[in-house]
Design a protein that fits this description.
Elements lengths: L1 H23 L12 H19 L10 H40 L5 E4 L4 E4 H16 L2 H15 L8 H22 L1 H20 L5 H37 L6
Antiparallel strand pairs: 1-2
């Protein structure tokens, strides 16, 4: 009897850990490669251990054969990965905004190692990503992400068939929305670049002897960065609101 109880508890812990662990591995900040793999695994295991008594009632009974257990765990991992990829797509709005702003300011060729995406990125993209992750952790938005991941059990109950079509549709719609939000976040700098370059074109026509590129580039960088610093607080607040709306789909009422 005791052996059966222990086996059931270990099975439930494994099932909860499969979904939560896969989702936590992709969360911004927590899932970064800058955080050691052991720390991320211990965090996911600790959260799964705390939530297992609460979520245990919604879990199916332990399968009798190995293949059924394997497919059940695979389903939970798939749901966790879907949730993590969705958050990555939501965060990609800042990557697009950083690229648009970099083109507009004139810092296209200035690259830096982005600690969030773990790849070479434009310096303004890395700056925006780092600022966003800092705000996510400071404002406890990562708690909202964890809550949405836990509330996903009400939408995707373990053992049921995966809504693959709904997964694909939601990822596509979120990607399109992120592209639009990225363009909207960078709109002030895009407008500034358009007006400034039109002015340089007119100046080049009026004074052909002037080296417009050498005169205009420092002014464009200085003016663009100054405008970015003025617009940065509302841009970050808008992005956090957009991120909260994206996570609100998974949150249970109340």
């Amino acid at each position: 009897m005791l052996r059966e109880i222990l086996a059931t508890d270990v099975f439930k812990l494994l099932l909860v850990f499969a979904r939560l662990g896969a989702g936590i591995m992709l969360l911004p900040g927590i899932g970064s490669a800058m955080v050691s793999t052991r720390a991320r695994l211990l965090l996911a295991l600790a959260i799964a251990f705390l939530l297992q008594p609460t979520l245990g009632a919604s879990l199916p009974p332990m399968p009798q054969d190995l293949w059924s257990l394997f497919f059940l765990v695979l389903q939970e991992v798939t749901i966790g990965i879907f949730f993590g990829v969705l958050i990555v797509i939501l965060m990609s709005a800042l990557d697009l905004a950083g690229n648009f702003i970099g083109y507009s300011v004139g810092l296209t060729n200035a690259f830096v190692m982005d600690p969030v995406s773990q790849e070479q990125a434009q310096i303004l993209t890395g700056f925006l990503d780092t600022t966003a992750v800092t705000l996510v952790l400071v404002t406890d938005t990562h708690h909202l992400m964890l809550r949405a991941l836990v509330d996903s059990y009400a939408l995707f109950q373990p053992g049921n068939a995966l809504p693959v079509g709904d997964f694909s549709d939601m990822l596509i719609r979120t990607a399109g929305r992120s592209f639009l939000v990225g363009l909207q976040l960078s709109a002030p700098l895009v407008v500034f670049s358009l007006i400034f370059n039109c002015g340089l074109g007119l100046l080049n026509r009026l004074v052909p002897q002037m080296q417009v590129f050498f005169v205009g580039m420092p002014i464009q960088i200085l003016g663009g960065l100054s405008l970015l610093m003025l617009c940065l607080p509302p841009l970050m607040l808008w992005f956090l609101h957009y991120l909260g709306e994206g996570l609100g789909v998974f949150l249970a009422p109340g």
